[in-house]
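Title: [Solved] N-acetyltransferase domain-containing protein 3D structure

Original question kept below for reference.
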Amino acid sequence: MSLILCTPSETDVSAVSTVHLRAMDENLLTHAQFPSPEGLEFFHGWLERNTLEHLRDGDKGVLVAKDGETGEVVSFVKWLVHRPGEGGQEQVEEEEWPDVARAEYLDPYAKLTERVRDRAVGEEAAYYHPTYLCTDPRWAGRGAASLLLRKVQELAAAEGLPLVLEATMNAVTFYQKMGFEIRDELSMMLPPRGSSEPTEFYEERCMVWTPKIGAASS
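Solution (posted by the thread starter after getting help):
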């Protein structure tokens, strides 16, 4: 089994969205924000548009891992580069969400993650922010996510910038193995799947990776 890392083409954006939804199918936040089949269909389209933005914007990026034999997209990473004064952060909170999405869980989450990143590295810091790193569950454990994340680490190291991200609890150990440290935490009360009552405690960790001195030239 071989993997090919590359920048996706515009014809790959639907496959990237499908991998995202497969990878996050058990995630409480996903279904709190998009609680119906119609909501998930909207989210799939939103993710396609988001991938296109990452392909076209100079301060954003996306890479995919493809099966070397079939060309199937099996994993991807998206990131943006936050540069103070240049508007480099996501503006999810400015979205006008349709009725099939729950703005009450989308907007507060976006603002909460921004606050914890500011606390972790400072409001005026420049950093790479991996926004999504997802692998099709059928390909889990085969190294695709590690390969993709190392590429982003190389890009950040070349600029001497840290990586800052929000990790789901089941991914914390993976990021620690990749050299990340926990700097902060965030939590929300969310409704369980199929419910509208926020009775479930949901948490993530804000994690930071800092390039070693001399890493960019090694």
